[in-house]
């Protein structure tokens, strides 16, 4: 291969470029990104960035970026995959490449009248809005919604979080551990409303709930998940289904095209995690250079979230058999394990709240 195009200039895209160089590829690398910014870290956007403690946090310093010898095409969107070797761009140009890495990530799901937090530009606008707002409404009590709620409370705002499910984070952590995380809102003065759908959002602020109640808010933020950014691939040669379909090594049905990060549906699973994007990039680029699947990604899906001064960590998968191994839920400091239903002695998942040391020790033995 002489040229490899990476479509997506965030974490997965940058890590793919770095992995290619680490694995000895010395050809041309073109990185296409729809944002004008060089790669930056997204997790701080909902926390220290909103609080004004940091500005954009680069994922690599300029010296490291220069050493990659990458051709950056920023502020330009990919608009189509014309063939297995050609990508059309929004500036009416094309990029031809022997290999392609799809790393376009996800797009936030929205509700009319709400703000979202996905990009640096989103965060800049939201931080400005928080400057004059007193009442903040959050739709969705997942990790991103909870983090934004935590930041708003730290800024002295009145916060109401609305969650359609009876318990927050049930799909990720299960009902018991999701409820434990949900208690953090009340502990710190936020109002959590669960088990109710949102009917609409007023243009001038406020959330209309399905039961007729109105949540007053100057700013409303939707944290209701994301969908894979695959619109530009519709009708092209790569198979799609809840993302870019690929095997466990990130290889698509087109041998010289791989997918990494939030956009990749690898062996039936799409992971929207920081660590997954990094790990998948190493594996997928290796397979791209090999021309076949010689390695697979077997990461445990580690994710962390900082809320109200508490760090929540999770890895593996949640089951109905969950056991607190240390500490207590009431103290908001504990480690719990999830056990396999057929083999109760096997730990298949771990969740911790403010107990990083034991979490790290236990994860070494994760099945």
From TrEMBL:
InterPro entries: FAD-oxidoreductase/Apoptosis, FAD/NAD-bd_sf, FAD/NAD-binding_dom, FAD/NAD-linked_Rdtase_dimer_sf, Reductase_C
Domain FAD/NAD(P)-binding: 3-281
Cofactor: FAD
Ranges of residues in domain Reductase C-terminal: 302-364
Keywords: FAD, Flavoprotein, Oxidoreductase
Gene3D superfamilies listed in its UniProt record: 3.30.390.30, FAD/NAD(P)-binding domain (3.50.50.60)
Name this protein carries in UniProt: Pyridine nucleotide-disulfide oxidoreductase
Encoding gene (name): hcaD
């Amino acid at each position: 291969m002489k040229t490899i195009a990476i479509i997506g200039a965030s974490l997965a895209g940058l890590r793919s470029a770095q992995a290619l160089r680490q694995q000895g590829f010395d050809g041309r690398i073109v990185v296409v990104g729809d944002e004008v910014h060089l790669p930056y870290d997204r997790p701080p956007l909902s926390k220290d960035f909103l609080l004004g403690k940091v500005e954009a946090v680069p994922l690599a310093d300029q010296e490291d970026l220069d050493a990659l010898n990458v051709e950056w095409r920023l502020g330009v969107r990919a608009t189509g995959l014309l063939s297995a070797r050609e990508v059309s761009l929004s500036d009416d140009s094309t990029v031809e490449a022997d290999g392609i890495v799809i790393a376009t990530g996800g797009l936030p799901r929205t509700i009319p009248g709400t703000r979202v937090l996905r990009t640096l530009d989103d965060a800049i606008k939201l931080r400005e809005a928080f400057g004059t707002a007193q009442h903040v409404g959050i739709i969705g009590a997942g990790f991103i919604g909870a983090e934004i709620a935590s930041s708003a409370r730290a800024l002295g705002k009145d916060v109401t979080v609305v969650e359609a499910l009876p318990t927050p984070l049930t799909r990720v952590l299960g009902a018991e551990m999701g409820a434990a995380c949900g208690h953090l809102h009340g502990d710190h003065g936020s109002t959590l409303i669960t088990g109710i759908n949102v009917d609409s959002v007023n243009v001038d602020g406020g959330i209309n709930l399905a039961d007729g109640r109105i949540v007053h808010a100057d700013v409303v933020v939707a944290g209701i998940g994301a969908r894979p950014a695959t619109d530009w691939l519709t009708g092209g040669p790569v198979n799609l289904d809840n993302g870019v379909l690929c095997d466990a090594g990130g290889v698509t049905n087109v041998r010289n095209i791989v997918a990494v990060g939030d956009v990749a549906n690898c062996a039936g699973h799409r992971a929207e995690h920081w660590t997954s994007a990094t790990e998948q990039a190493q594996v997928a680029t290796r397979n791209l250079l090999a021309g076949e699947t010689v390695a697979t990604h077997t990461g445990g899906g580690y994710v962390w979230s900082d809320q109200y001064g508490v760090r929540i960590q999770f890895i593996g998968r949640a089951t109905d058999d969950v056991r607190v191994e240390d500490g207590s839920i009431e103290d908001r400091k504990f480690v719990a394990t999830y056990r396999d239903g057929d083999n109760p002695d096997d730990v298949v998942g771990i969740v911790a709240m403010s107990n990083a040391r034991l979490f790290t020790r236990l994860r070494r033995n994760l099945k």
